[in-house]
Amino acid sequence: MMSAAAIDPPSIGEGAPVLAFDVGGTDIKSAIFDANGIALGLRRTPTPALGDDPAAALIEELARLSDELRAQHPEVAPAALGFVVPGIVDADAGIGVFASNLGWRDAPLRALAAERLQLPIAFDHDVRSASWAEHQLGGARAHDDVVVLIIGTGIAGAILVGGEPYTAGGYAGEIGHSPIADGPVCACGARGCLEAVASAGAIARRYAAETGTTPDGARDVIARAAAGDTVAARIWDDALDALTMSLAQLTAMFAPEAIVIGGGLSRAGGALFDELRRRLAARLSFHRLPELLPAELQGDAGLIGAALRAREST
């Protein structure tokens, strides 16, 4: 069942027409970009159950969606296809190293897609692709040394050095799983990961566990903190401290010109950005303070990044 997309990405500019897919554990965003860079046929479709051979099943689903997009827009002849996935991704080798929510290990996704779809294939990590889109068209476009941090149910990140993604075979950028405390235990199995303390999901879960009241997401917890709820204030303060520690470590190691923050928690506005700027300045000394900027492309960034990478493959 297809659902209408509530997103309207900007034009990616003139160039070769391409197909683009942003694959998630819940849904797949798809579109065909014409020669003017306009996304046509944009929609979200549920990610199907991928069964015992998840890599092959995913490629079949992309082929089905590709056929639908081409049939709906016969005037557009795509020159390439780009798709991005979560997990550990070795984009240079075209390998999906590991994806816990999609079920593959060491899957040759780019080769499988090229064989099935008979097009040049661009393949990358979803957040790394989103960071590339933010660098090209969004919040990071004025900077070459950038960290992009997506804070939602979990926390994902990507690093650009000299305007190019730093990948380390797909293992770089796991900022959400950098240790910042002795606890709690993270879903990944490690202790004290940033994601386990400061993600929107962790903030809401912790408030529910401590009060027996289910909040309407992390932003509700933040609003309760501002209204004087002491439990909410403590949980939000812990999250801000954890984020500050992580940003301070990134600043000391990489000296980014900017840190671009997206995802649901970024919509907290000044409650997040103003506090992080203040706390980060107080924690650091001689370091170059990065600009803290909101992501501009938000949920569109992965799809746009897939389209940009597809164009580069032509």
UniProtKB/TrEMBL annotation:
Belongs to the ROK (NagC/XylR) family. The keyword Transferase applies. Its EC number is 2.7.1.2. GO terms for molecular function: glucokinase activity. It comes from Microbacterium murale. This is Glucokinase. Keywords: Transferase. InterPro entries: ATPase_NBD, ROK. Transmembrane segments: none annotated.
